Amino acid sequence: MHEYTSTARVWGLTCPGFPEEVSRARRWTRDILRGSPVAHDAELIVSELSANAILHTASGGLGSFHLALAVSPKVVALSVTDEGGTGTAPKVEQPSEDAVHGRGLGMVSVIAHRVVVHGSHSGYTVTAELFTDAQPGGHPC
Length: 141
Fold this sequence. Notes:
By secondary structure, the chain is of the alpha+beta class. It has helices at 21-32, 39-56, 104-111, and strands at residues 9-16, 64-71, 75-81, 114-120, 123-131.
């Protein structure tokens, strides 16, 4: 491969902070990953991360959130960046049985092969990676 040629492709989408934009984010992800073995998992992850940005950060309402989708032969990486405004970073929680919130990022961490959170109170990026050559339902060693 030539040193300036890459087989990875990257897409980006910025969405207003309205609830109906979550379905737009899902549709966008589904269209890009059409035919990929991780398309359904990626769609679910983008839906959860986008909804979290709208519900739990300044991205909701008059704000916005940004999606990035990077696809290579072995990895699909999905990132959602919010506008911050909260004092706590996104994290996997163990909510009580009757809790209304707190399960989404845990679900994402079970589906994805790796989840990374970057940022500060002014904005967080949650990236979920799906390895396309992994066995279904299993995480690579």
